[in-house]
Amino acid sequence: MCSILGIVNENRKRLSAKYIVEGISLMNDRCNGLGGGFAAYGLYPEYKDYYALHILLKDFELKDQVAEMLKDYVNIYKDEEIETRNVERISQDYIPWRFFVDVPERYTSDADNYIIDLAMKINNTGGALVISSGKNMGVFKAIGYPDEVARLYKLENYKAYMWLAHGRYPTNTRGWWGGAHPFSILDYSIVHNGEITSYGTNKRFLESYGYKCSYFTDSEVLAYLWDLLVRRHKLPIELASEVLAPPFWEQIERMPPEKRRIIEALRMTYGPAMVNGPFGIVIANGSGLTGTAGNGTMVGLSDRIKLRPLICARKNGTTFMASEESAIKAVCKNPDNVWAPHAGKPTVAMVNGDV
Amino acid sequence: MEMYSSVPEFRVDIDRQACRLCKRCIENCSFGALEWRDNKVKAFNDRCVACQRCVSMCPEDAIALRRTPSVMSAHPIWTENARRDVFTQSRTGAILLASTGNELHEQVIFDNLLLDACQVTNPAIDPLREPIELRTYIGRKPRFVELEELGDSLRLNTKLSPALKLEIPIMIAQMSYGAISVEAHEALARAAVMRGTTMGSGEGGLHKKLYPYADHIIVQVASGRFGVHPAYLEAGAAVEIKIGQGAKPGIGGHLPGTKITDEISETRMIPIGADAISPAPHHDIYSIEDLAQLVNALKEATRYKKPVLVKIAAVHNVAAICSGICRAGADAIVIDGFRAGTGATPKVIRDNVGIPVELALASVDQRLREEGIRNETSIIASGTIRNSGDVAKAIALGADAVKIGTAALIALGCTVCKRCYTGKCAWGIATQDPELRSRLDPVEGAQRVSNLLLAWSIELKEILGAAGINSIESLRGNRDRLRGYGLDHTTLEILGVQPAGS
Amino acid sequence: MRIVANYKHYKELNEEIFQAVQAGVAELTLEDVNGQRFIADCLKGKLNIDIYGTPGNDLGMFMDGPTVTVFGNAQDGVGNTMSSGKIIIHGDGRDILGHSMRGGKIFVRGDVGYRVGIHMKTYKSNVPIIVAGGRAGDFLGEYMAGGIIIVLGIHNRAKKAEILGDWVATGQHGGAIYVRGDVDESKLGNGASQFRVTADDEITIKKVLKEYCQVFGLDLEGLLDAEFTKIAPLSHRPYAALYTCE
User: Fold this and answer.
1) Fold adopted by C92-239
2) Is-catalytic flag, A31?
3) Tell me, which fold does domain B159-499 have in CATH?
4) Which terminus of chain C, N or C, has less C-beta within 10 A?
């Protein structure tokens, strides 16, 4: 059991962290203080052209080591410690650091894959974890309840047009900073409620596409699957969702022929990418990726037989997606519309305008 | 020179008080172990194979078969079997013939693998009420799907390779007409139709009676090329090239001329009474590139409408071989483990050549993944799949589907008496004798095989549901849901499975 | 008595309710409720509880007697294993509403979610009843062993959506579901079948809907002026042939 919440303003109006923190905190009964985290988009407008690497460092000495490694591969425009304050219940297991980097000119045509490879390299060194690597966005996470993590990172100092939050109740794996959500790769971030029974299948499938799973938790595969399907294989969001939560064969057989052909092809091709077991997820996707320039999105999705809850609401161009309606009502008392999405069908909120 | 081996293995006990002298047992014994002498049934214990036919046919339950108590002095190495084999060969100077599967290696790794289930953190899914899917497509899958936007609609630009659609991930193995009766063949084909799966023609062609079921039959092309002609290739749901089988890797075979009846002659397209010889290799495949050539020839012949499978015995270098087979264009690879059954094989080969299917499967699946070509072929595992637990474990190790042979025959009435090679099967399965064949009703037999497949399917859904999985593709290759129990470190490493408790 | 829930934790809120009930208060109004779980959990006897806001999960769990009215939407698990009483929801209900319910009534004006009425049971004179004014999600009446579910499809929020989801009444072995309108055969799960509504069924429907209409101020005649479809089990022992031994 975990809590998830996403808030996005389609006009890129930047909201203070207050709302997301209040909303996620209302669901503290869904988590146990062993992991909390946030993703924020529109975070660094002044550095929006640089990849913002949020890196957790096991100790201070590692900082120079990571910086040296980065220098071999990218240009570091700026780097600094991510400011934190002491929070009673949180032990500072890691030092969070941010690097703004760009990719050397000769690699810019494939900059995104270049950054992913680099992130996986750093994760493999031990002691340093890249927790986000997109542009104009960042992830903040630690062990603790979400509100404690928000205080730790001084989230009140940040504004973003799109926020994700997660409160964790770890099951299969221990509570550690790296295992807290969101999981992020490039401009994709994901928060997940549930447990993936197909993890082994998904992980081995991803490995054959070059992904390395290093966070010891099932939720990690969701971020990579989304990256594979949407960014690399360019599937529309609706169809990528049908890969993660495919219709049953008996439902496919009742579809019109052309749609049926497509869905059958997807199920046959991406069978190992199907995510089994209960899940409710919210995926945030900023923009500005090479080759996929366009609008940012937030997508809510539950498993195909609805074993985890997901409620959506809208008010004046702001869309909310949450585990519980009360979390939305905590920050938006009278939404224009509240609805429970269909199992396995994505709810998509689009962000207008370019970065 | 008479020696100890003449001590019969079994003893037929007849309850003289109960016996009402109806002679049904005598009529039913196809091995001549019972005769009418001095107005009573006399047993010739040395001919008895314990096939249980007389036992089940006796209306008075007057017959019991017993294993003869050992009369030899015990020796741990020179077992009775070892001594008996030496004696037999010293008498005949011939290869020991055997049926069914490996008797020397009793360990089945499947039994040392444990499946997982959900508790609390995840709901078990109730298969009786919530949908759980077993459908499986056998064939090459694309690495990604390409779509094109056309106005409001999307067009699929990826062309899918032909695939076999199976409603259950359990297929019926290749067993030839000749090795088994046409009645057995028909029963298996009907069962395949009933359960939405396939059966294999085996290498002996397809009896004309079987053509109505051909869209559920995988027609085999083996080294003897018996009964292979355009109509045969066109009729099948898929074509399977047999390189080898687990019970006799690297060994050819022959169906003796005495068994080539007119119907078998017509089906195999060879003269009545002539030996049907299957060479050890295909004489058009002396290397991997030749396999590619045959795969492509068959694809041409079937106008690229049917998957082409390649079956091999699990041998030491199976992973590398399967990589080559995959790259040769095979849409599926059948890996037949060293415990697999057969109608006739040299005993020394059956018991000593090849490796267990669990290890072969695990290493092939991993190798193809490492090479990034796992999607290009399906993997089918066979060789002692005894129950739905074995099916689930094989799939979790990485198989797309499994094939069953012996289990299907047992459903038809086989009692595993291991005398298939005699052609005297008392149950009408491994025989061409018209009287014996008439004992097997294909419709009734089909129902029994179908029942078996149905029962396993329901059990598979229970296994999946307990693991919180509602579609078989999420178990496939999901080794995280297996644990090893009582397996050594190296074996676990090859299987890619953690030890229980970790 | 009026209690403002505001940001109180459910333990605090429910303790206040419990104390009030112990003191003999029979009319309670809860305001600014948002996400507090287990409201009216295991409360017994004649009580009226009006809730403004969004009560949290497991509203009215194990409840035996009270009438709870929600002016808004409810969350998952309304009336979980409830014994008797009434829950009225003026908005939508969510998933597993009426789970294992063994008596009483749940009236929802809007839509309901997934697995509504799952495993509800009839025992002797206890017949649980659920009425949904809008649509119902997949697995409606799953394993249903007794009781009555009525789905009206009149306040369907998602206008285009069908009244019923898939796998309706899968594993049903008791009770009845009445749907206002036709039901596509493909919607039914294993074990359930469609039947013609009999005179007895009509009497049942009318009786239940009369009360439903009074609660929400709806026109009974208008509601009844439609064909209902009955979904009931084929067998009380759908799995009799499932197991074998020797």
Assistant:
1) Pectate Lyase C-like (2.160.20)
2) no
3) TIM Barrel (3.20.20)
4) C
